[in-house]
Specification:
Elements (H helix, E strand, L loop, with lengths): L3 H12 L2 H10 L15 E4 L4 H18 L2 E6 L8 E7 L8 H12 L5 H11 L9 E6 L5 H14 L3 E7 L2 H12 L9 H20 L6 E6 L4 H10 L6 E6 L13 H7 L14 E4 L6 E6 L5 E4 L1 H19 L5 E5 L5 H10 L4 E3 L4 H8 L4 E5 L5 E5 L1 H13 L3 H16 L7 H15 L3 H5 L7 E6 L8 E3 L4 E4 L3 H10 L5 E6 L6 E6 L3 H18 L12
Parallel strand pairs: 2-4, 4-5, 6-7, 6-8, 11-12, 11-13
Antiparallel strand pairs: 1-3, 2-3, 8-9, 9-10, 13-14, 15-19, 16-17, 18-19
Helix pairs in contact: 3-4, 3-6, 8-15, 8-16, 11-12, 11-15, 14-15, 18-19
Bound molecules: 2-acetamido-2-deoxy-1-O-phosphono-alpha-D-galactopyranose (NG1) and zinc ion.
């Protein structure tokens, strides 16, 4: 008599058409050029060399869908990376990032030789108790890269060869696809699983939330939006018709002439601390930039003296937090709220949140999946990476409590505040950071508080900081602890950093191996830009000497 696992194995052998898989593998042959790692952002690489991986992601998505008995999403994008790159991200049932054990399966499957793929598939089925007799449904989306259509075709081939059903949403932003997955797996409780459903849900929440502020006929707010020449432009243009006229948006870098992510977009603006090309910026004008797949956003302006001011993920988290806190006080609800940041959060933002807003702050490792996971531990968890990727999570219980109060509360003031919280929940894409949804929430808060971008910026002053990269022989030799804030290896490195930090005022520094680039990242902040630069330089020298730096020695920043 066969046990449960043995029987499943036998049935799975019958279900999986190995011949068909083998035939299609030949069409999507593995070019054994580089090792592909399913990392923080899924698979990323030069579009020419990831064709085979796309086909295999299709296979894997079917297994994941059968195992979870849910719809799974696959987004074809390489986010803020150059146009020639591409990649894929799998989306789990509630719109969240793929579970860590499946990240390992994805890596094994993508790198397996063609003749080993069947073994890897069988192995995954066995380890994860996948019953191949279950149906599979995959939703697919892609960004505007020239390679995306062909790669999504390879993906569809992978889905089909294992008998999976699919719906191809075509061109969508990454967060829109996360939204679709969540809608489909919650019987559309979360929203209607169409683009129209997404636009209607967000715009209705925005209108309701801002009713009070936007009704005054003189309230107009204007915003320049740099869409990185990516998918965000297409989708924001579609959404514009649903939004009130008093929100005046000037969409630039819409892809009609410029190249994706080239000298523009959220990553460019954050890293270079300057406005993107293609955006004419007058003093005190409110501007924002999306990244290539519209899951990140940063705001900025230039003051009268020509000085550039960036309002990054930390400033966004602080603004949202202060707004939520005020509303919570008005409702009288006793809900726990916390902010989750990474080590890259500016020290001033952490102090402001803890000391002025009295909101607890937690630190997570870099990568939104870590922040998302931690934020789930609170009634309301606000999380943002400094680079502008983030959202707010409401626990099921908190959401129900707020919705109930919005309906049943007798006290007018409290009920109105609860209604505003309810609309805030509806406006937020809780599945993942969403540039469009975050932008609308920020615009709503600014309108309600009657805040200019300068007033928002003045909530606290960022400590000057500097990020650098160092090339080393093997970046994995740098091991870290305490949410990446301290280096454990190589020996002496942390002692060195600690000693350097004591030489500067208000200083902090840390190093960590990048998860997306072959480099060690160095971060330093201090009381002046010169000091932050000098500390970053000295720390990068320590990394270079203690962790087998390659290439030229780091040079002082001038
Ligand atoms: P790495 O390369 O691991 O630092 C970068 C960003 C992350 C995250 C990922 C995914 C910084 C310092 N790091 O990770 O925040 O966005 O890319 O895209 O911005
Ligand atoms: Zn992105």
């Amino acid at each position: 008599m066969l046990g449960g696992a043995g029987r499943l194995l036998l049935e799975n052998r019958r279900e999986m058409d190995f011949d068909a898989v083998a035939k299609h593998l030949k069409l999507h042959a593995h070019l054994p050029r580089t090792f592909l790692q399913y990392g923080t952002a899924g698979f990323r690489g030069s579009a020419e060399f990831i064709h085979h991986a796309m086909f295999r992601v299709g296979l894997l998505a079917v297994l994941r869908s059968k195992q979870t008995k849910s719809t799974i999403g696959v987004m074809v994008t390489a986010s803020h990376n150059p146009e020639k790159d591409n990649g894929a991200k799998l989306i789990d049932p509630l719109g969240e990032m793929l579970a860590p054990s499946w990240e390992e399966h994805a890596t094994r499957l993508a790198n397996a030789d063609d003749d080993k793929v069947q073994n890897v598939l069988s192995d995954i089925c066995q380890k994860e108790a996948v019953d191949l007799q279950h149906d599979a449904f995959i939703v697919i989306g892609r960004d505007t890269r020239p390679s995306s259509q062909k790669l999504s075709q390879a993906l569809i081939d992978g889905v089909s060869v294992l008998g999976g059903q699919y719906h191809d949403y075509g061109l969508v932003t990454t967060p829109q696809l996360h939204y679709m997955v969540c809608c489909r797996n919650t019987h559309e409780n979360y929203g209607i699983a169409t683009l129209e459903g997404y636009y209607q849900k967000l715009s209705k929440a925005f209108l309701e939330l801002t009713k009070q502020a936007m009704n005054q006929s003189d309230t107009r707010t204007s915003l320049k939006v740099d869409c990185a020449n990516g998918i965000g432009a297409l989708k924001l243009k579609e959404m514009e018709h649903y939004l009130p006229r008093c929100l005046i948006m000037h969409i630039v870098n819409d892809g009609s002439i410029g190249k994706l992510n080239h000298l523009c977009g959220a990553d460019f603006v954050k890293v270079h601390q300057k406005p993107p090309v293609g955006l004419e910026i007058k003093s005190n004008e409110k501007c924002c930039s999306y990244d290539g797949d519209a899951d990140r956003i940063v705001y900025y302006y230039i003051d009268e003296t020509g000085c550039f001011h960036l309002l990054d993920g930390d400033k966004i988290a602080t603004l949202i937090c202060s707004f939520l806190k005020e509303l919570l006080v008005k409702t009288g609800q006793n809900l726990t709220m916390a902010v989750v940041q990474t080590a890259y959060a500016n020290g001033s933002s952490t102090s402001y949140l803890e000391e002025s807003l009295k909101v607890p702050v937690h630190c997570a490792k870099t990568g939104v999946k870590h922040l998302h996971h931690k934020a789930k531990g609170f009634d309301i968890g606000v999380y943002f990476e400094a680079n502008g990727h983030g959202t707010v999570l409401f626990s099921k219980a908190a959401e129900e409590q707020i919705r109930r109060q919005a309906k049943e509360e007798k006290d007018n003031r409290k009920r109105e505040a609860a209604k505003m919280l309810e609309n805030t929940i509806n406006l937020i894409n809780q599945t993942v950071g969403d540039a469009i949804s975050d932008m609308l929430l920020i615009e709503a808060i600014l309108a309600l508080k009657n805040f200019t971008i300068q007033q928002w910026d003045a909530m606290y002053t960022d400590l000057p900081n500097r990020q650098l990269k160092v090339q080393v022989a093997d970046r994995q030799r740098i091991e870290t602890t305490d949410e990446e804030r301290r280096a454990v290896t190589p020996p002496k490195l942390q002692d060195n950093i600690d000693e350097l930090v004591t030489r500067f005022k208000l200083a902090r520094a840390f190093v960590r191996p990048s998860g997306t680039e072959d480099a060690v990242r160095v971060y330093a902040e201090s009381d002046t830009q010169e000091n932050a630069d000098e500390l970053a330089y000295k720390v990068s020298l320590a990394v270079y000497h203690l962790a087998e730096g390659v290439g030229a020695e780091p040079q002082p920043i001038v």
